[in-house]
Design a protein that fits this description.
It contains 7 helices and 2 strands. By secondary structure, it is mostly helical. It folds into 2 domains: 79 residues, Winged helix-like DNA-binding domain superfamily/Winged helix DNA-binding domain (Arc Repressor Mutant, subunit A, Orthogonal Bundle), CATH 1.10.10; 89 residues.
Length: 207
Amino acid sequence: MSVRQSLLAILDQGPCYGYQLRAEFDRRTGGTWPLNVGQIYNTLDRLERDGLVTKGDSDDDGHVYFAITESGRAEAAEWLSTPVPRTAATRDELAIKLALASTLPGVDVRALVAAQRAASLVRLEALVAERARPSTAMTDGDAEGASSADLAAALVSDALVEHAKAEVRWLDSAAARLERSGAGGAAVPLIATPPRRGRPVRDAAAS
């Protein structure tokens, strides 16, 4: 998730102060990824340093407003119009955990997969239940604004549910692969001679 570009996209609608940006981000994303104010102000400081926002005056309550610059507006527009890259290099903790576990002695990988699947199902059920609840987005706003906020929350909720379903399917596939292998994989020992600094690790079997 890009906090930087998200804040720029919101600021493109008009100047905001830190707490206001947090509230706007929260209601526009269904409250799924809460941001703390410190994170927002740290990001605003970097955006100001990069010439993408400017700091304005304070209001009577001491709120310091930030306004987007033309460069910031261009970056926000580019982010919104460019597909999000999904590369093979993306680090998924669960995939890495299972991959490593399958190479370690004494680890019951099938039990690990079963436990993870149970936890993933609980999360999926919670997400489905949350999606079924009536939205309270922008209850004090106008009907058109509330409708847009409801749509935004629904889009995020749908994505989370589908990702959770995909995780359960992948775990089922992993369990089937482990069954076909007859175990949890073979233990992979450490390389006898550690690789020299700066040289890639090579499996002895591939030499």
